Amino acid sequence: MLTNLRIFAMSHQTIPSVYINNICCYKIRASLRRLKPHVPLGRNCSSLPGLIGNDIKSLHSIINPPIAKIRNIGIMAHIDAGKTTTTERILYYSGYTRSLGDVDDGDTVTDFMAQERERGITIQSAAVTFDWKGYRVNLIDTPGHVDFTLEVERCLRVLDGAVAVFDASAGVEAQTLTVWRQADKHNIPRICFLNKMDKTGASFKYAVESIREKLKAKPLLLQLPIGEAKTFKGVVDVVTKEKLLWNCNSNDGKDFERKPLLEMNDPELLKETTEARNALIEQVADLDDEFADLVLEEFSENFDLLPAEKLQTAIHRVTLAQTAVPVLCGSALKNKGIQPLLDAVTMYLPSPEERNYEFLQWYKDDLCALAFKVLHDKQRGPLVFMRIYSGTIKPQLAIHNINGNCTERISRLLLPFADQHVEIPSLTAGNIALTVGLKHTATGDTIVSSKSSALAAARRAEREGEKQHRQNNEAERLLLAGVEIPEPVFFCTIEPPSLSKQPDLEHALKCLQREDPSLKVRLDPDSGQTVLCGMGELHIEIIHDRIKREYGLETYLGPLQVAYRETILNSVRATDTLDRTLGDKRHLVTVEVEARPIETSSVMPVIEYAESINEGLLKVSQEAIENGIHSACLQGPLLGSPIQDVAITLHSLTIHPGTSTTMISACVSRCVQKALKKADKQVLEPLMNLEVTVARDYLSPVLADLAQRRGNIQEIQTRQDNKVVIGFVPLAEIMVVFTMLTFALSSKTSCQTMDPLFMVAIISKTLVLQKNYSYFRSQA
Question: Residue ranges of the Tr-type G domain (predicted)?
Answer without folding.
Answer: 68-353
